[in-house]
Design brief:
Largest sheet: 5 strands, mixed
CATH class of the largest domain: Alpha Beta
CATH architecture of the largest domain: 2-Layer Sandwich
Number of helices: 10
Strand order of the largest sheet: 5-4-3-6-7
Structural class: alpha+beta
Order of helices and strands: HHHHEEHEEEEHHEHHH
Distance between the termini: 23 Å
């Protein structure tokens, strides 16, 4: 049997039999293993991987794996940090001044109390604003909090994951609610549930002022995850960025899988 006849025989036999059985029969009839493998590789278009090519493939796999790991670390430590330890802030009590009250222009009566900066810092800490961080340029997260019915405005920033008062400046976002809503959230046993309830009823609003790049670089996705918003202000500004990173990771993982499959398949042959 010539090499051409061997190739034709193997081509027909492979349609119904596995290569290992064909190889065993041919070796029993006197064919050398190297000749059988060579004809099979030519027939199937597969060649053994050289050492240089194997090193290149392994190196490429390591690079892709490194990119995936870096992307995950960047996402969980910078874009949406979840491993930051929550600062301990003692909850200051709200003292109602029963003998004093204010009447607004619309006729509403506001009972005076000591609610102020310390209470807001505690409240923002509870909704995980402490997870925000400075961007690579060193700009800190800036939040403006407006008590809409009393017209009080507070400017707060996050420095080293601590919420502090800052000078008036261009905020990244504005949180707005009436005082009774803020106090009800503050006094709630389940802060997250009360915040979500107030947000869904449009009693608490979130106004986005900064662009997407700024929000992402300062970790505002942590707030998006906290509120679980979909189709709302934060989701619209941050969701696209999160989806893009997830898509990139998926593509890299698929590419890495394809490379490994090809390597091991060719080595097996």
């Amino acid at each position: 049997m010539s090499n051409k006849e061997l190739k034709n025989y193997m081509g027909e036999s492979l349609k119904t039999r596995p290569f290992c059985d064909i190889k065993k029969d041919l070796m029993n009839t006197g064919w050398k293993e190297a000749d059988i493998d060579e004809e099979f590789n030519e027939l199937t278009g597969k060649k053994k991987i050289g050492i240089g090519k194997m090193v290149l493939i392994i190196f490429s796999c390591l690079i892709i794996l490194g990119i995936i790991i870096c992307a995950f670390l960047y996402y969980y430590f910078f874009i949406s940090p979840n491993l930051i330890e929550k600062p301990i802030i003692i909850k200051p009590p709200i003292v109602i001044e029963t003998n004093q009250s204010s009447v607004l222009s619309n006729g509403s009566i506001i009972v005076n109390d000591n609610f102020g900066l310390g209470h807001l810092e505690f409240l923002l800490n509870e909704i995980e604003v402490y997870k925000l961080h400075s961007n690579p340029s060193g700009e800190i997260p800036r939040i403006k909090f407006i008590i809409s019915d009393t017209k009080q405005e507070y400017y707060l920033g996050v420095i080293n994951h601590k919420i502090v008062e800052i000078n008036e400046s261009n905020p990244d976002i504005i949180l707005r609610a009436e005082k009774n809503i803020i106090i009800s959230v503050y006094n709630a046993n389940n802060t997250k549930e009360k915040v979500m309830d107030s947000y869904n009823q449009e009693l608490l609003s979130v106004e986005i002022l900064a662009n997407t790049e700024t929000l992402v670089s300062k970790g505002y996705i942590s707030l998006y995850n906290y509120f679980g918003m979909t189709g709302n202000a934060i989701a619209e500004n941050l969701g696209i960025k999160g989806q893009g990173i997830a898509a990139l990771l998926i593509v890299l993982i698929i590419l890495l899988g394809i490379i490994f499959i090809r390597v091991f398949h060719q080595r097996k042959v």
